[in-house]
Amino acid sequence: MKPVSQAGHPKGWPAALPWVFLLGGLLLGAGGQRLWQAKAQAAPASAEPAQATPARKILYYRNPMGQPDTSPVPKKDEMGMDYLPVYADEASAPTPPAQRQILYYRNPMGQPDVSPVPKKDEMGMDYLPVYADEAQTGGLALSPERIQQLGVLSSPVRREPLYRAIRATGRLSLDERRQQTVTAKYAGWVEKLPVNSTGQTVHAGQTLLETYSPELVAAQQEYLIARDSQHKLGLSLQADGGRRLTLEEGALQRLRYWDLPEASLQQLVKTRQVRRTLPLPSPISGVVLAKKVLQGSYFKAGDPLFELADLRELWLLVEVFETDLAGLKAGESVAIRLDAYPGESLQGKLDFIYPTLNPQTRTVSVRILLDNPDGRFKPGMLANASLTVPLPGEPPLSVPESALIDSGTRQSLLIAQGNGRFEPRAVVAGPLAVTALGERRVVIKEGLLPEDQVVTRANFLLDSESNLKAAFGSLQPATSPAKEG
């Protein structure tokens, strides 16, 4: 055991050592106090934001994939994804409600139910306020979620060249200029009938029938007599007053006036033999529409023997409404589709616009030419014709066809004003037209500005909701509604 000194510390220790420990303790105590004070000052600053952040009110939970499905409580979808909360400050209107007069509250799901005071529906969702400025302008304000649920799309107003699309239905018919009736200028009997059926195809110059005619036999004999007399008498070919026909030439010319084939006449001149029967040739190439003689039958001069038609070109006769006549011109190209050949597009040419109008149907007949070189198309076939003509004047303002809301007595558009606001506007619509690319658009004559944006999708839903809101507003009393007790 070490000896202890009189001062109370072990023997051999320095006498100043206790003072060293005392001084270190005081220094440590002062430093710890300053460290504790710094922490105490920093703690309120870090805790202050948590106390200042207010709690946001959740109205409901929506589907994370944008589907029209909501829930008043947290849930998951079929893929296990959490439904997203929709807060009260997100569903409110852009202008603070305190600065706008609230007329009433409407059902958040669009049901026909209103309330003069704030309330909740069966799912716990707050009724949405309807403000006085909305009811006065007849506009509609929607949240981004509601716009996405409805699938609202908008399109700018355009000014571009437009074309009027005209469509009509008709039937193919014979070209009247390619039809011909075959007759004889003399009387006789049918000795032979090579062409003996309707629908048979014939060529120009082909023999239709062979006839026996006493007149033709006598005329041939007269030619031969005149020829012999000419050579025996030695008549001069010249006479006072110029060249004239000889007896031989006059007799031959008489046979030509009966439209006998030139080959038969040359054979008569060469052989000097009278033929008992002579052929009747076809004047055109085509088909036999009607055969009006039989083998051995007798016919008189001028009787119709055959009806022929050239089918290499047909007419398409269609009826066009008088409102579509403006801009129609002969020579325009026409697209034709036949019911007999679906999916095949043909090209025709507008040939003639008839000068009269049918007072019962208010239509005008239009004639279109269609080439038929191989005879595939038959008279009587149904056909659809379509052509486009440019609208006269300067390019007008137009909107997509789906943007126009036409009730029969009122035509209107929904104008997208931005920030989720839409305004119905009455307009005066013109004709339906198409662009050069085939897009269907409606000409707007009045009520539209070039810088407007129009709703092209879900516009009927928005118009119905706007009208419903206006109807609810008209049901409200003139005075402020009393609060529910």
Number of strands: 30
How large is the radius of gyration? Answer: 51 Å
With strands numbered from the N-terminus, the spatial order across the biggest sheet is 10-19-22-21-20-23
Shape: rod-shaped
Mean pLDDT: 80
How far from one another are the termini? 94 Å
Residue windows where pLDDT falls under 50 for at least 5 positions: 1-50, 92-98, 471-485
Specify the number of helices: 8
Largest sheet: 6 strands, antiparallel, barrel
Classify the secondary structure makeup into a structural class: alpha+beta
Strand content: 25-35%
Helix percentage: 10-25%
What features would you describe in this structure?
With 485 residues, the protein is of the alpha+beta class. 23% of the residues lie in helices and 34% in strands. It has a 6-stranded antiparallel barrel. It has a 4-stranded antiparallel β-sheet with strand order 7-27-26-25, with helices on one face. The protein has a 4-stranded antiparallel β-sheet with strand order 9-24-29-28, with no helix packed on it. α5 packs antiparallel against α6. The chain is rod-shaped. The chain starts with 16 loop residues before the first helix and ends in a 10-residue tail after the last helix. The N terminus and C terminus are likely disordered.
